[in-house]
Specification:
- The chain is an alpha+beta fold and 291 residues long.
- Helix content is 37%, strand content 15%.
- The protein has a four-stranded mixed beta sheet, with helices on one face. The chain has a three-stranded antiparallel beta sheet with strand order 1-3-5, with no helix packed on it. A two-stranded antiparallel ribbon has the order 2-4.
- It is globular, with a radius of gyration of 22 Å.
């Protein structure tokens, strides 16, 4: 058994698991050279016969992802690291990064700039991943998921420790309520797509939307919070809160009226999972914004 890892996919339009070359017994195997968005893959190659020499026409093809040549082998995917497509400043991407960090799930990040090239989320390649043309997108376990809360729910179902949804049904409902309050009632009103439509009034619009949502959220948290949003355990609600507070600070929202939100946010930012997932510490963070 030969393990081959660490291959970066370079130019393409389909995941390697979907490429015909990965489903066949071949006299040689290499990645099809069509990937634009990168990722790290781990494959298990079970060789049936002694490898034969690399054909002349394949020599020097490292840039197309050539791995190895063998005489009739069976290729099986032993494991594949999840691939997160996201943007350093995207609050939705940040939620998922926190969840992955808390659950100790190693992944590969593919930056998708929401600003460069007119917005890379609008490219044909990315639209094939997510027709909504939004980040984040997570490739994991052979499926492609979008929408941050759906992704977090899947991670919760497949990697239940540590829990992000309480077992107690009342607390679980409160967590979902707070997460939806932020993810549906605040963030979409001040995201990039909406702000572009607001033109010169975008700052005022963002401040109004966030302040209105925080007024309600502060009242809710006064009834549900312990150390964190619901009790003393980190939950999906907290994964939504911290990125939204960061948005509020970026848009210069006056935070004085929200002492409970401020207290919880400060406690969460002391946790390692929230530190490593912070926008200031991502591979695609511009130099001037790095911590």
């Amino acid at each position: 058994m030969v393990l081959v890892s660490g291959l970066g996919l370079q130019h393409g339009d389909a995941d390697v698991a979907d490429c015909s070359c990965s489903r066949l017994n071949l006299t040689g195997w290499w990645l099809c050279p069509g990937h634009r968005f990168g990722g790290i893959v781990l494959f298990s190659l079970a060789l049936r016969e002694k490898p034969s020499p690399i054909p002349a026409e394949l020599k020097g093809k490292a840039k197309t992802g050539f791995i190895s040549w063998s005489r009739l082998h069976t290729l099986t995917m032993a494991s594949e690291k999840p691939i997160l497509y996201g943007y350093f400043r995207s609050s939705c991407s940040w939620r998922v990064r926190i969840a992955l960090a808390l659950k100790g799930i190693s992944y590969d990040l593919v930056p998708v700039s929401l600003l460069n090239d007119g917005g890379q989320q609008f490219s044909a390649e990315f639209k094939a991943l997510n027709p909504m043309q939004q980040v984040p997108v997570l490739k994991i376990d052979g499926i492609t998921l979008s929408q941050s809360l759906a992704i977090i729910q899947y991670l919760e179902d497949t990697h239940p420790n540590p829990r992000l949804l309480p077992q107690d049904p009342k607390k679980r409902a409160q967590v979902r309520m707070i997460a939806d309050h932020i993810a549906s009632g605040i963030q979409p009103l001040q995201n990039l797509k909406v702000l572009k439509q607001m033109g010169e009034k975008k700052m005022e619009w963002a401040q109004t939307c966030i302040a209105s949502g925080f007024q309600a959220l502060e009242q809710i948290l006064q009834h549900t919070a312990g150390r964190y949003c619901v009790g003393d355990e980190v939950s999906m609600a907290d994964l939504c809160l911290v990125p939204q507070v960061s948005n509020a600070e970026r848009f210069k929202v006056e935070m004085g009226p929200y002492p409970t939100i401020i207290r919880i946010n400060k406690a969460l930012l002391d946790l390692e999972a929230f530190k490593v997932s912070h926008p200031s510490r991502q591979p695609d963070t511009p130099a001037e914004l790095r911590a």
